[in-house]
């Protein structure tokens, strides 16, 4: 099985076995960032959208959203959520294994929220491609795990997480970009079964100035 098929098979099984209501609320870090950095809606690209919490919220705020995932089950649930909240005209689902194919066009906002996988993938390559998809004046926002939650598939492993500076350096941005935010705050997270833990996230927001 090649990596693209392996990724699709893993995430199909993952979402098929998950409560369709999980992951349907937006990431509060993202909503706060956009209030400060992008108060006016435009076009957006949500990479690894899952059940669509961020994408559906963005559409409700007036954004025109391209929601991307490798799992058709996840995308079907996003489409159902869009229909239920009357934002179908602002949600466009696309199925991609992002290491293999990528949506066309440029966007005012590109987000990668917890874009992690137990299946090996060229993550840095995908994030650099994400930066290329940002229109002038637009934002790339990456919110990612910087510690291991007790319910993670990585629990018990000795993992070195990159710092925000590491992530920004890996994007290979030129002088047409400005770092709006790059830090690693802690928060209280809630797992699928209601268990809570203190975790650390990397929060990266970079703007293409021209």
Topology, element by element:
Elements: H1 3-16, H2 28-37, E1 43-47, H3 53-60, E2 64-69, H4 72-84, E3 91-95, E4 107-113, H5 123-132, E5 134-145, H6 164-170, E6 177-183, E7 186-190, E8 196-208
Parallel strand pairs: 1-2, 1-4, 2-3, 4-5
Antiparallel strand pairs: 5-8, 6-8, 7-8
InterPro entries: SAM-dependent_MTases_sf
GO molecular function: methyltransferase activity
GO biological process, one term: methylation
List the defining traits of the structure above.
210 residues, alpha/beta, SAM-dependent_MTases_sf, Class I SAM-dependent methyltransferase, EC 2.1.1.-
Describe the protein.
The chain is an alpha/beta fold and 210 residues long. Helix content is 30%, strand content 29%. It has 6 helices and 8 strands, in the order ααβαβαββαβαβββ. It has helices at 3-16, 28-37, 53-60, 72-84, 123-132, 164-170, and strands at 43-47, 64-69, 91-95, 107-113, 134-145, 177-183, 186-190, 196-208. The longest helix is centred in the N-terminal third of the chain and has 14 residues, at 3-16.
- Cα-to-Cα separation, first versus last residue: 42 Å
Roughly how much helix do the residues carry, as a percent range?
Answer: 25-40%
Structural class comes to alpha/beta
User: The biggest beta sheet, please?
Assistant: 8 strands, mixed
If you compute it from the alpha carbons, what radius of gyration comes out, rounded to the nearest whole angstrom?
A: 16 Å
Extended strand count: 8
Briefly characterize the structure.
The protein is an alpha/beta fold and 210 residues long.
């Amino acid at each position: 099985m090649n990596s693209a098929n392996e990724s699709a098979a893993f995430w199909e099984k993952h979402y098929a076995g998950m409560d369709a209501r999980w992951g349907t609320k937006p990431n509060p870090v993202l909503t706060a960032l956009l209030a400060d950095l992008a108060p006016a809606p435009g076009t957006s690209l949500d990479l690894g959208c899952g059940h669509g919490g961020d994408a559906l919220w963005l559409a409700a705020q007036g954004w025109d959203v391209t929601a991307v995932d490798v799992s058709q089950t996840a995308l079907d649930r996003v489409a159902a959520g869009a229909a239920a909240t009357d934002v179908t005209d602002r949600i466009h689902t696309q199925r991609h294994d992002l290491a293999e194919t990528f949506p066309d066009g440029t966007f005012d906002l590109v987000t990668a929220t917890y874009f992690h996988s137990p299946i090996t993938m060229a993550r840095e390559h995908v994030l650099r491609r994400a930066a290329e998809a940002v229109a002038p004046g637009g934002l790339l926002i990456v919110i990612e795990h910087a510690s291991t939650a007790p319910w993670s598939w990585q629990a018990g492993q000795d993992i070195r997480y990159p710092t925000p500076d590491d992530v920004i350096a890996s994007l290979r941005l030129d002088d047409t970009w400005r770092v709006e935010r790059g830090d690693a705050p802690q928060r209280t997270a809630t797992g699928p079964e209601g268990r809570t833990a203190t975790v650390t996230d990397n929060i990266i927001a970079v703007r293409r100035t021209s």
